[in-house]
Amino acid sequence: EGRETRLRVVLRVRPLTCTETRRGDQQVVHSLGDGAVHVSAARHDATFGFSAVFDAGASQEAVFEGSGMRQLVELAMDGFSCTVFAFGQTGSGKTYTLMGPLGQSDTQPASPALLGLMQRSFTCLLEQSRSRGSDLALSASYLEIYNEQVRDLLSPGPPCALPLRWSKTRGFYVENQLSVEFESLEAIVSLLLQGSQRRRTSAHALNRHSSRSHALLTIHVRSRGVSAHPAPGQGWGAQGSARGACPSKQGTLCFVDLAGSERVKETGSSGELSVEANSINRSLLALGHCISLLAKPRGKRTHIPYRDSKLTRLLARSLGGSGITLMVACISPSSRCLSETLSTLHYASRARKVTTRP
Asked: pTM of this prediction?
């Protein structure tokens, strides 16, 4: 607590797709073990190091256990603000890593072996809650940032834009966002699937189910040790514990599924798809700029432009504030995706230098 903590960055390399294999694409990314990965192609020969590297054969369970996700769940229960975000080119496996296969629903659940980091974290959270015997209140909120509009994915009716506010006590927050309490695994998975089905997706040349928005699912974990609710804006810190029987803690576990970076020329996007792509790329550029500045030593940092996009505003606390953050960089091993893969690897390498003070 209060010590400088680096962002934990892990890398996942997806398998070559059937289309890439048929086309004769070469595999240019190779895992070397011990968190190192090597890129070898014409005029490119580079090695990158991460906290962990998961190659094409890694199971969903191996990614959950090896990424440090279990520790992140436990830290959220201890009152810390924890964030995991998946980053990479469109079609690189971000949504699969976080959620598992597409097309799952309440009536057609995914095979347990294919479940992603989210569902595994929910299971871990509820198991830990029962084993600790603590009286926890759990709730979830789910939003998307589509064309620089923040939209609630859980509120009834068509998604409408919500205002993003700033306060000294809370930092940036979304006004009037719905938060839904849950007590069982079925309830939170149902909320996740319900919200995901309302998220904007489209098909283009690189991805049949391309996410056209950034999505943020936040689990709020509060111990119910307080007899009275704190005053508005006070939170559940020391003020709450003074009035209650035992100290209260409030932690968060936020899952961020970023829309994929893409080149309009490669995806064949036009019209509305092109507008969406430009909006996605602008916000990812703003995020990359913030990460580059945060990677500098604290004494040499200039102003961090969090206000440049809605995405960076909502991730401000996770990236450079008092949170604990895990970044899962997802890449394709195909020679055809080399330029985007190198871009993601450089991006992720910079993120490893960012420090926070949890």
From this structure: 0.87
